[in-house]
Design brief:
One of its GO terms (cellular component) is outer membrane. This protein is an all-alpha fold. The chain contains 1 helix and no strands.
């Protein structure tokens, strides 16, 4: 009985170690995804700014043509 209890304890510890490793891996992936999202935010803002400038140029051209 004692031997099986010890083996069960080892198995449980191995599972805990594996789960801990999995959590660390997932945490690293979440951090990377967060960094990627933050980088994309600045890219999206730059694209929005470019689009706004392009729209303003088009508006200016249309205004000159209609004038």
């Amino acid at each position: 009985v004692l031997g099986s209890t010890l083996l069960a304890g080892c198995s449980s510890n191995a599972k805990i170690d594996q789960l801990s490793s999995d959590v660390q891996t997932l945490s690293a992936k979440v951090e990377q995804l967060s960094n990627d999202v933050n980088a994309m935010r600045s890219d999206v803002q730059a694209a929005k700014d470019d689009a706004a400038r392009a729209n303003q140029r088009l508006d200016n051209k249309v205004f000159r043509i209609c004038k």
